[in-house]
Structures are given as C-alpha cells and as structure tokens.
C-alpha cells in the first residue's frame, strides 16, 4: 500500500513537471512572438517586455492569483498581435494618422483577437487583454465600447501600463514625456480612461524618475 501510494505520488509529480515544462515553453514562445511583432516597428522595441513586467507587478498588487498573473503577462506579450494586419506605412508613419488610417490602426485589436482564437488553448484572460486593452472606463474606447467593470480586469490593468510606457517613449511624431508628466496624465485620466482603483495601485508602484 505504501509502495502504491509512493508510486502514485511519483506519477503526480512527474505530471506536474511535464505541465510546468509545457507552460514554460508556451510562455517563452509567446514572448518571442511578441518581440518579433514589435520588431516591425523599431520605435516600440522593448515595449512588450516593459509592459509585461509592469502589468505583472500591478496585477500582483491588486491581488491577482499566480495563474491570473501568468495569463496577464501572456496577454501583454500578444496585445499587438493584430498589427500583423496593419501596413508598415501606417505603423511607421512619422506624422499624425489620418482618420482613415486611424480606423485601420484601431482594427488591430479585432484582428489580433481573431488570430489569437486560432492559437489552441489560449485562456480567456489572454484573449481579454488582446481585445479589450483599448477600452476606456467611460465607455468611449474600442472595439466594443465597454465601460467600467464590464471591461475585464486584466485589460484595465494592462491599459494603464501600456499608456504609461507609450508616453515615456520617444516616437517620430512626439518627444518622450518625463516620468512626472506621464504620471500626471495617468492621474488626470483616472475615471475617464482608466479604472480609478487600478490607477491608485499604479501610483503606489510607479517607477521612480
């Protein structure tokens, strides 16, 4: 009986190791895909890893479980997957987009979601980050005009990190904002663009200048 129990335990541990190995491989593959995606636009290099790191820390502060943090991080890796369907001319345009070009750019969330649905086994939280990270707390975002807590929490968390990193990064059409300027903008948009509770947690964790 003892030997049988020990054998079962050994099998359970072996199965757990196998599952952990698969999850680790998936995580590495998704990160690689995210890095490849941003390589199309050299101005955003490093954005994927930075936002994934920030979002994981913020999610942890907000009480997400380890599994939810894993899915949030994976969603961060793939959040711009749909930009595969956006032309380089638009992605790399050194000036403000026209209304027509902006509509095309906005379509990347739907395209990314559709592509992600074809990746077997992606959890719903990963899909939620991809589809909903451009929704706004006041309902004026896209693609679904979700408002308040109808926006998945992982997307609300990632949205703050995504915007912060974009603000402090230089682009051909804008200078990099200072940490203080970016933080002030995040605060101003609390209750409009962002979930106030997420903003409060972000401000407590905000990186130093």
UniProtKB/TrEMBL annotation:
<feature type="domain" description="HD-GYP">
    <location>
        <begin position="22"/>
        <end position="209"/>
    </location>
</feature>
<dbReference type="InterPro" id="IPR037522">
    <property type="entry name" value="HD_GYP_dom"/>
</dbReference>
<dbReference type="Pfam" id="PF13487">
    <property type="entry name" value="HD_5"/>
</dbReference>
<protein>
    <recommendedName>
        <fullName>HD-GYP domain-containing protein</fullName>
    </recommendedName>
</protein>
<dbReference type="InterPro" id="IPR052020">
    <property type="entry name" value="Cyclic_di-GMP/3'3'-cGAMP_PDE"/>
</dbReference>
<dbReference type="InterPro" id="IPR003607">
    <property type="entry name" value="HD/PDEase_dom"/>
</dbReference>
<dbReference type="InterPro" id="IPR006675">
    <property type="entry name" value="HDIG_dom"/>
</dbReference>
């Amino acid at each position: 009986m003892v030997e049988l129990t020990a054998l079962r335990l050994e099998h359970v541990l072996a199965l757990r190791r196998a599952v952990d190995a698969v999850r680790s491989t998936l995580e590495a593959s998704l990160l690689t895909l995210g890095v490849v995606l941003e390589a199309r636009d050299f101005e955003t290099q490093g954005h994927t890893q930075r936002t994934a790191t920030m979002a994981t820390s913020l999610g942890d502060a907000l009480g997400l479980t380890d599994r939810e943090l894993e899915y949030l991080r994976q969603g961060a890796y793939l959040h711009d997957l749909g930009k595969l369907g956006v032309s380089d001319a638009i992605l790399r345009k050194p000036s403000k987009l026209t209304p027509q070009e902006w509509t095309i750019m906005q379509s990347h969330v739907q395209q990314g979601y559709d592509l992600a649905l074809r990746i077997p086994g992606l959890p719903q939280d990963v899909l939620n980050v991809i589809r909903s990270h451009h929704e706004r707390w006041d309902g004026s975002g896209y693609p679904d005009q979700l408002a308040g807590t109808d926006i998945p929490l992982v997307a609300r968390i990632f949205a703050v990190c995504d915007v912060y990193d974009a603000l402090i990064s230089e682009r051909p059409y804008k200078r990099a904002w200072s940490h203080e300027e970016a933080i002030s903008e995040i605060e101003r948009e609390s209750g409009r663009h962002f979930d106030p509770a997420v903003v409060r947690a972000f401000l407590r964790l905000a990186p130093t200048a």
